[in-house]
């Protein structure tokens, strides 16, 4: 049982995007049509928000720096995500993204915690808030700021699990999917 919301008074949940909310691809998610929600993810976000959680996103989007797509396309994906969550009866918090490439030396590309710092500035304390990701770098960014790391096995998650998680992360709860995580959290 995760003590979600007990530590962070903000009842905040931080989601990685690709491989957690929507399908991921080694060729990047470059167009609106390639942005395909994973089964149950939109409904899970809507259920969490109806239960009083603020659900925000922290995502690396190096495809911008690499020239694979532009900010307008990325914004269209996030507009679509918000529309779908609203249609499912919920609300989506803000999407925080790193548009930089691996060699840009920014502070916001996960595993750097800069996106989490932006979330703190906008939403307040993130201590104990679950950070749900499919890659080690997602979990590392969250742990660096006191979040509760949660691995889902969608996207790159199964590969991440197979590689093994560093003990420095502490305890990491593992769920098959965001929908599975949500079932557990809202049932307990
Ligand atoms: O999982 P989030 O953070 O939401 O987004 C990941 C994407 O930005 C892309 O990140 C890339 O990593 P590099 O940025 O090339 O290291 C690759 O892993 C792609 O497969 C993936 O689609
Ligand atoms: Mg991901
Ligand atoms: Zn960045």
UniProtKB/TrEMBL annotation:
Keyword Metal-binding attributed: yes
EC class: hydrolase
Major subcellular site: cytoplasm
Superkingdom in the source lineage: Bacteria
Record carries keyword Nuclease: no
Keywords: Carbohydrate metabolism, Cytoplasm, Hydrolase, Metal-binding
Subcellular location: Cytoplasm
Residue ranges of the TM segments: none
EC numbers, comma separated: 3.1.3.-
One matching Pfam family: Hydrolase_like
Recorded family membership: Belongs to the gmhB family.
Name of the featured protein: D,D-heptose 1,7-bisphosphate phosphatase
